[in-house]
């Protein structure tokens, strides 16, 4: 699971709620700090690249001094990223490998949208708070300088960009208690069933009753297409959202199941695709010879068909 939201949105409340019920929390910000602590190869590499002036009097990283040098131009920023990103990636992989086999891994990534990371997750949870309310919280509760708060909010992804990747949208316009209650409902009704189906290699029962067309189905299908591309990559010739849920046009009621086609080059590629889907939350539908898979997410009924290019 990917968890994200703008600065001051309330991700920590959601993370605490999930962790209290068994989630395995991986905090991207914490990892970014860990890999450049005193004595690490990360800090040594930064000093070599940007000079000892980025250290404070105690030999720890002075982040403001680093920012002055690392964000001075695109080349310097690239140098910073080339040092820190591999270390962050390696540490994240270590933590994922250490997670229990049946754990819900909650990857808390503030810049998930900015980094185009959404397709890497079974589902993306966005905590949303209007920008003006976040500004008020940052300034009046955290004591942040108003100009700094506004700059940091404006530098992050927009609400529209976050909504485009959000499988689960949590509104934090109210109290922390209200947000925690929303998070608990999502945990019980969506995340735990998704985890259980994923672990057991099963899928939720698909809806069969037609409903009115929802224009949002197109966006959900687009996210699923991106997820399948992330999983299958070069193994697929084409991936498409097909059928009546793809166009979003008004019309007669339809069964709200997202249908997607994955076209592969040959039988070997079809078998490889089936194995990847089965291992990543798309269980094979019995009686379909491994060519039709159903998503484990009960909040996003979806069926994926593997076709061999003729």
Structure keywords:
single chain, 310 residues, alpha/beta, Rossmann fold, Beta Polymerase, domain 2, 5-stranded mixed sheet, 47% helix, globular, ATP-binding
Beta-strand proportion: 15-25%
Separate helix tally: 12
CATH architecture of the largest domain: 3-Layer(aba) Sandwich
Q: Which fold name corresponds to the CATH topology of the largest domain?
A: Rossmann fold
Kindly report the name of the CATH homologous superfamily of the largest domain. P-loop containing nucleotide triphosphate hydrolases
Class by SSE composition? alpha/beta
- Terminal CA distance: 36 Å
Please give the domain count. 2
Count of extended strands? 10
Spans of 5+ residues with little confidence (pLDDT < 50)?
Answer: none
Judging from the principal axes of the Cα atoms, what is the shape?
globular
The average pLDDT score comes to 91
Subcellular location: Cytoplasm
GO molecular function: ATP binding; dephospho-CoA kinase activity
Pathway: Cofactor biosynthesis; coenzyme A biosynthesis; CoA from (R)-pantothenate: step 5/5
Pfam families: CoaE, GrpB
Give a description of the structure:
With about 300 residues, the protein is an alpha/beta fold. The chain folds into two domains: about 1-200, P-loop containing nucleotide triphosphate hydrolases (Rossmann fold, 3-Layer(aba) Sandwich), CATH 3.40.50; about 215-310, Beta Polymerase, domain 2 (2-Layer Sandwich), CATH 3.30.460. About 45% of the residues lie in helices and about 15% in strands. The chain has helices spanning about 10-20, 30-35, 40-50, 65-70, 75-100, 130-140, 145-155, 160-165, 175-200, 215-230, 245, 265-280; strands at about 1-5, 25, 105-110, 125-130, 170, 240, 260-265, 280-285, 290-295, 300-310. Strands 2-3-1-4-5 form a five-stranded parallel β-sheet, with helices on both faces. Strands 6-7-10-9-8 form a five-stranded mixed β-sheet. A hairpin with a 6-residue loop joins β9 (about 290-295) and β10 (about 300-310). The radius of gyration is 22 Å and the shape is globular. The model has no long low-confidence stretch (mean pLDDT about 90).
């Amino acid at each position: 699971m990917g968890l994200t939201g703008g600065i001051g949105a309330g991700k920590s409340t959601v993370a605490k709620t999930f962790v209290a019920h068994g989630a395995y929390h991986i905090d991207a910000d914490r990892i970014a700090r860990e890999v450049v602590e005193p004595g690490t190869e990360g800090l040594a590499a930064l000093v070599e690249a940007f000079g000892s002036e980025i250290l404070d009097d105690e030999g720890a990283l002075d982040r403001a001094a680093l920012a002055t040098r690392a964000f001075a131009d695109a080349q310097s920023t690239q140098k910073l990223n080339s040092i820190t990103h591999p270390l962050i990636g390696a540490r994240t992989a270590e933590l994922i490998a250490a997670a229990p086999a049946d754990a819900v891994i909650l990857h808390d990534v503030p810049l998930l949208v900015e980094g185009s990371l959404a397709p890497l997750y079974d589902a993306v949870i966005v905590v949303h708070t209007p920008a003006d309310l976040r500004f008020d919280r940052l300034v009046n509760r955290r004591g942040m300088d108003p100009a700094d708060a506004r700059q940091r909010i404006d530098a992050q992804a927009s609400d529209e960009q976050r909504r485009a990747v959000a499988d689960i949208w949590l509104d934090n316009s109210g109290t922390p208690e209200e947000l925690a209650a929303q998070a608990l409902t999502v945990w019980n009704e969506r995340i735990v069933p998704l985890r259980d189906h994923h672990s057991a290699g099963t899928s939720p029962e698909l809806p069969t009753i037609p409903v009115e067309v929802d224009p949002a189905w197109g966006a959900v299908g687009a996210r699923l297409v991106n997820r399948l591309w992330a999983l299958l990559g070069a193994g697929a010739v084409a991936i498409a959202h097909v059928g009546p849920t793809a166009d979003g046009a008004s019309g007669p009621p339809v069964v709200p199941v997202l249908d997607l086609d994955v076209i592969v080059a040959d039988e070997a590629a079809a078998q490889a695709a089936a194995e990847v889907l089965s291992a990543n939350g798309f269980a094979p539908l019995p009686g379909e010879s491994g060519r039709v898979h159903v998503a484990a997410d009960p909040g996003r009924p979806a069926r994926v068909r593997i076709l061999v290019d003729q």
